Amino acid sequence: MSSTTTTRPPATPDPDRSGALTARVTLGRVFAPVPLEFLLVVSTALLLTGFGVVMVTSATTATSLSAGQSPYNDGLQQGAFAMLGIAAMFVVSRLPVLFFRRIAWIALGVAIAVQLLVFTPLGVEVYGNRNWLDIAGFSVQPSELLKLALALWAAMILYRKRTLLTKWQHVFIPLVPVALLAIGTVLAGRDLGTSMVLVLIVLACLFFSGVRLRIFALPVLLGVVAVTALAVTSPNRMARIMSFLDPNCDYLDDCYQPLHGIWGLASGGVFGVGLGNSVEKYSWLPAIGDDYIFAIVGEELGLIGCVVVLALFATFAVGAFRIIRNSDDPFVKIAAGGITVWILGQALINIGVVLRVFPVLGVPLPFMSAGGSSLVAVLAACGVLLAFARTLPAPHVAAPGGAARAAARGAGTGRGAGSERVAGTGRSARPARLKR
Question: Over the stretch 303-329, which tens digit does the pLDDT of each residue have?
């Protein structure tokens, strides 16, 4: 019998099918599942930002009307900055980690240069602090962008020297001199609160870089000495500290603002007086939409509103610290640590000031206080955290199907792939033993 061999022509790719496959792959990358850390950070950032826009609108209606403006003027401005910051957050979240390492030196140099502009005719002094720029009718606070730039730069320096951090010379140079230069530009404008936050960022980066405790203790000691010296040498700061420690301080002088802040919190009770029904916002409490926005939350929404804000910050902390713990990249750990301590530390300082646990420091509440510079900078920092979250290793998930489950069980019990069960027997199929 003769056998015939049939040859088939090579299959030609279907252009429609390949195009659909390419589109499917592209959409799969866009809608790929994100880690839990990503969801925790982005959800709390959006909720706190939206909550802040509502509270700023409610807190500033009276002062806007008294200034002859629309009652929603400050609220609309805060909403516009919120949209800008959210857009920046999602754009930054798509950038690779390598980009942040390469841009660190440039970002810090630009941030310091812009910060120095406050000492030019563009600079504006507010409440004794020269830390703002007046550009085309808009107030800009360059020290807010300096916080993010300093966190990325410190992380980049410590990442490059990660094998030399056992020697104090490599830990301090160039980190400490350059950081002191950046912090000095803010201190020159007499803004102690922002300077303390910058010190916290540097200390956090040192802590998460894994330096030895004896090396880490020296910059902590230097920071405490510097803050003490700055407080003692300034009559204004000493007056605020003494009024904080004195339960019988002068109501009309040093204790006017902190007392009205605590009275606003106390008058809210458990359920609050209702959104928009604050009494303190009628020119009783200074900086009502800025540093003391938490007092209005307590007055209008009561203890329940304050607990919701604290719960959102706690959820943000869980997501941020999970990024630090689960990342394999030292740069990500250090930079994420600096950003997390910045946002959470600033929130604790602000809430502590309102509760009279700390003296008045003039630090805004992240996400919620009025101010475009602070909001955009914090949301951009959240974008950096989201970019880091995208690089986290995916958790191991067993594939569906009996073979995959058996292989996973075999790997977990020390048995190999040859220990799958024989169908219908209920016994394990073991490989034949070799005869000796």
Answer: 999 999 999 999 999 999 999 999 999
pLDDT tens, position by position, 120-172: 998 988 777 888 898 877 888 999 999 999 999 999 999 999 998 888 888 88
Task: Rounding to the nearest 10 degrees, give the CA dihedral for residues 391, 100, 153, 40.
Answer: -40
Q: Is this model's pTM higher than 0.85 or not? A: no
